[in-house]
Structure formats: C-alpha cells, structure tokens
Amino acid sequence: MANPVSLLAPALIPSWNFFDVIAASPRVEYALADARDAVLDAWTEFRPRPQRLSPVAMLARLFWNARWNESLFLVSCAERLVEEPTAHGEDEIFRRIAADLAGQPDAAPWLSFRLLFIDPTGEREVLYQAAPRRLADLDLR
Fold this sequence. Notes:
- By secondary structure, this protein is of the alpha+beta class.
- The chain contains 4 helices and 5 strands, in the order H-E-E-H-H-H-E-E-E.
- It has helices at residues 4-12, 55-63, 66-83, 87-101; strands at 25-33, 44-45, 110-118, 124-129, 133-134.
- Strands 1, 2, 3, 4 and 5 form a 5-stranded antiparallel β-sheet that branches.
- The N and C termini lie far apart (47 Å).
- The model has no long low-confidence stretch (mean pLDDT 83).
C-alpha cells in the first residue's frame, strides 16, 4: 500500500496552481421596473457577501451553507454566460433571482439582471445585460 501521508497531503495542503488564472470577479445585479422598456438605473447586488461573520456563523457554514453553494453556482453561470451566452444560463440566473423576490408581493413586474465584473484593481465593467422578463412568467422550479 502507498504511503498514507502522500495520499492525504494533496487534500490537506492546497495547491498554489489550483486556479488557472486570476480573473475579474463577477457580480450579479438585478433591477425591477414597471414597464419592459423602462430605463434601468436602480441596480441591486444579488446576494451580497456579508461584511462580517461571527465565529459561530463561520463554524456553522463549514457544515451547512446551501445558500452560498447556490451563489457559487451563479458565479459559474455568470462566467459561462459571458464566455458563451445560452438561454439555459440566463434562465438559471433569472430563476434564482425571481425565487428570492417571490416573498416581496409589492415588487415591480419586470426583472432584468446584469453581470458586473470587478477586476483586482477595483475597476468595474458590465459585460452582460439580460433583456427584461415578467416576474410572473418565470418558472420558479
């Protein structure tokens, strides 16, 4: 049998080459409007990262953090949507935003999202903006 330490070492000590490149970080922002052709200027970050977490919250997140896992999935969708736009990627992001907004009965009927990329220097660039869709028409499954 191989040395157990050599088998465990890659799992315990992270590789410095884990990421191929360090690229701009995508953020999903959404805007609500009363009409399809309304000017969208009030953008809200979707699921912003918390500014501070207590040690208890950090410990709990080690064992259960389904919401953060879903947010990481959205980051993957955002990156793929910019590289190769597909209806599926756009639908996934719309679906997640609409599900979070479902608890707000007074929300405006039209929803749009955009992908804002923030590079390591802090420069912000919008690389994708989806056409508005009616919230009532979105499938929340």
